[in-house]
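Q: Hi! First time asking for a complex rather than a single chain. Here are the components, and I think there are two in total. Is that enough to go on?
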Amino acid sequence: MIGVLIARDIRRGSTGATWLPVAFFLLVAALMPFAVGPDARLLGRIGEGVLWIAALTAALLPVERLIEPDRADGVLDQLALHGLADESIAFAKIIAHWLTFGPLLLIAAVPGAALLAMDGRSLVATEIALAIGTPGLAALAVAIAAVTAGLPRAGSLAALLLLPLAIPLLIFGAANALLLEAAVSLFLTAGGPFVAGAAIRASRT
Amino acid sequence: MSALLRFEGVALRRGGRLLFERLDVEVSTGQALHVAGPNGSGKSSLLRLAAGLLRAERGRVERSALALADDHVALDRELPLKRALQFWGPPVEAALEALALTPLANVPVRLLSSGQLKRATLARVAASGAPLWLLDEPLNALDAEAATRLANLVALHLKGGGAIVAASHQPLPGEWRQVELGA
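A: Yes, that's all I need. Here is the structure of the assembled complex.
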């Protein structure tokens, strides 16, 4: 059932809306030369940090469609009746979310780096850090989506919750401290299903 | 006759309000139970409790494998009806046929009317193969023909050794044991 659920969520995640975070990511990267001026040296120096900020803000866009539609439509209830633990549901959703979000973001980082006049070395460094950090970001997004599911103005609330909690990923990712980045990402990926599972259970009142 | 659902001294509280207490219910194979009562008396909550989606404040609930049809459709709206039903597992052709949904098998779920959605929800339960069916207001939005089809489906399921608990504020066709919840 978990495999079927992951396949279904990937199918549902691979619509036109999949490109929204990518477009948003590139837009933020494209805004930066307008904001700080076209000095290639300056842009190259801040490029890695800018790509990370762009990645975090892009991660906010899909949050509202990760859990809430399935909660409102009774899919989460039916999955529970089929014997799936809420944690397993959350785990499947994290995998599916990363697969429809992470790889696209890694691809978008290439034109993003070009917009910021980053050299090849810092592009590779950013790609590696993003590859390590995005699973944690996906887990965080699913957990926040579960916590805010069904609440009024859930989207804004999710942004207020997600961005501060993503700061460790941002610090170690932008500083290219890969081991610490991996530790934070692993912590979020391992803890995310339990937070999201508990939130799904608590939403059944 | 083995019990497919058993409540022993069950109390349920929701939102600080005690909906019922000291409730004893036993439903065995071949039995149909009609949970009646006015709006807000806890009929749907009783079904969700039976399904294990809510926790009892006191008492014990034992249940066998079950399927629940409430007012949540739980079918992917962008998919054709048949594919959406197939996500939940077993072959669905017989259930589609029983509820006269076969002509709609290739219509996306989002285009179905509310009566057709109700039939689709019932088809999901009928296809589940679970011995215990929990039906919340099964007659809502159904026309006379669909209600007859549901009655036939219910009779067939009971004859096959299944059991049904239905919550409804209106009379149900067929033979039902009744439990009345207070307001």
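A: The mean pLDDT of chain B is 91. Let me know if you'd like any chain examined more closely.
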